[in-house]
Structure formats: C-alpha cells, structure tokens
Amino acid sequence: MNVSEAKTQIIEMVRAELGKDEFSETLNPDSPDTRDPGKFSFLGQPARVIHRFNGWNTPINLNWFSGKLDLPKIKGGEFYWYAFAIPKYSGFSNKHYFICDYLQMRDWVMEFKSPLGTDYRDQGYWRADIQPYGKSKHYKNGYFRWGDESAKIQDQLSRIIMLDNIKQIVLSQDPEQPTRRITTEVSRIVRDTRITKQLKGLYGNKCQVCGLSIGLPDQGYSEAHHIKPLGNPHNGPDEINNLVILCPNHHAEFDRGLIAIHPDTLEIIHIDSKNQYFGLTLHLGNGHKLAREFLLYHHDKIFNKQTE
Questions:
Q1: Is residue 181 helix, strand or coil?
Q2: What pLDDT score does 184 carry?
Q3: Which of 90, 163, 216, 249 is the 20 to 30 A CA-CA neighbour of 12?
Q4: Residue 104 and residue 101: Cα distance in Å, rounded?
Q5: In terms of pLDDT, which residue wins out, 138 or 196?
Q6: H/E element, 17
Q7: What pLDDT digit, counting tens, does each position of 158-198 carry?
Q8: Three state DSSP letters for 243-296
Q9: Dist. CA 270–CA 303, nearest whole Å
Q10: What is residue 99's DSSP assignment?
Q11: What is the largest CA-CA distance in the chain?
C-alpha cells in the first residue's frame, strides 16, 4: 500500500459514513501542501495519511521530549491529524481507518516504556501498529502499539481506540456540547483528557500560580482548570488554550472567582490585593498559550461577580 492508495481508502470510507453535505464540511481531499499528496484537510486542519508499508512509519517530533508542543512535519509541512489507513491484515477481516490528533500521538510517545531495551527517542520515525482489540469477529475497537512492544499485551487503557471514528471526532468537536458519551465496545466520555495529561507533564504537576505540587508517594498531584468553564451556562471548550494547571487551593479560588489572570498582561489578580501572588505573572511553559477571549470571559463573568 502506497500513500495514494492509503489516502483513497480513508477518503472513500469517510465519504460512505457521512452524507454529502457533512462530508464536504468535514473533509477536503485536496492536499493543502503541494509537496505532499498524502495530506488532506480535516475539520479545517491539515491531516497526514500514515499507511502500512513495512510497518507503520510514524513521524515523531523530537521536540516533544523537551516539553514543547510543536506540530509534527512531513516534507517540511506541518500537520495536525494523523490518519491511519488499516488494510486487511493481522486478524482484521475488513479495511478500517483511525484518525487522531498530534496530542494523542504525543501522549503515546511519552508513555513508551521501551520494554525490549530499544530506545527510539533519538529517531524521527517510529514503527507503530494497530491491532484488533478483543475477541469479536466484527472489530469496532483496535489497540495501538509500538513495534518494540509485545503484540500479546493490550493492557494500556489509553491505547484502546475506536476504529472508523469520523463521527466520534465530529461529535467531540461540537462547541455546543463539549462532552458527549459515545457507546462502543468501550464506553467513555469523549473529552481531551490527554491534553490535561500533557500539560501536567509540561509543568511537572506544579501549579502555574504558586509553583507548588502536592507530593504523593509515586508522583506529584495537580489539577487542570478550564478558564472558561465547560457545560452550561458557560459552554467553554476543552482546548489547551483554555486550560491551566493548578494546585487544589488555587483551583478552588479560580472556580469561586476569587482569583483571575489579566487578559493582556497575564498578571495574577486576586480579590485580596494583599495576597502574596497578586501582581505576579502567571507561569507559562514552552508552547502553552492562553486565549485572550477565555481569560477575558473569566475576568468579566466570574471574577468580577465577586468584586461587584
């Protein structure tokens, strides 16, 4: 299978699952990068086909290991989505596909344990694989693994994926309903918990306000806070530019509108002007940016309610 065949397989399967209008709104088969016919546009972001030829050759951005959140590149062009074309092989009786964003791939990269002693982290390409998960003859779920991991072990819950998942992604991107329950062989809330895991790793579980972390026997503890809250009546998005990592104390203060972040200067504002953190600048790690609109919303709609 070459890249053109892989792209055709994905396009045809997605087209069959979506109606004509929904397909045209969701996916544009034309490559946004003239240098790379393996790309297409998906939900307004560039996607890149990954196909099975002598193993899955998966581009990995080595900056991920230094804490940055840069997009991966193929042929010099960035892309946001990984699109796996899965042919009939290794127990699959039908063709499938799987699409995920680069943050999901980064999550799998960072949890790689190198069980056979081969450390691929100095390479730009990793060998990946997608296998059937479970014993059903009509597989709805797959399991993502790296080539250095045993094909017999499927014990990482984060690696259990929903195959042919175009509708799952479209639902999860709906800004009016930031969380939805999708029922498959694996039932769970579709929400970008992988983003919070990556941010907690970026900050070492330390609060962006005070720099403190609760020490547990095996690791530090921190909490992720949505600046513009999820759900009614706020309907904030589950996106990286709407998230900060906090200790439980500062999380509670943000929730109750006792503390805010200045939308322009990123200075910490507190209802008590004598608070020790008042006027300090919020710590931001490499690649983590906050959207001004969410900071402004929290400042005006939540924090100011306590100061009126």
A1: strand
A2: 34
A3: 90
A4: 6
A5: 196
A6: helix 3-17
A7: 787 888 988 877 765 543 433 333 333 333 333 456 788 88
A8: EEEECHHHHHHHHCCCEEECCCCCEEEECCCCCCCCCCECCCCCCCCCCHHHHH
A9: 9
A10: E
A11: 66
Place of tokens 């498959």: 184
Is residue 120's pLDDT more than 60?
no
Give backbone dihedrals phi and psi of 200, rounded to 5 degrees, phi first.
-60, -35
Residue in the structure block whose two tokens are 């900050």: 203
Residue 132 token pair = 């059937």
Structure tokens at 108: 């799998």
Q: Write down the domain spans for the chain.
A: 3-191, 195-307
Q: Is the pLDDT of residue 16 over 60?
A: yes
Structure token pair of residue 59: 């581009």
Per-residue confidence at 84, pLDDT binned at 50, 70, 90?
very high
Look up tokens 């100061």; give the residue: 307
What residue type is 266 in one-letter code? L
Q: Cα–Cα distance between 221 and 6 in angstroms, integer?
A: 42
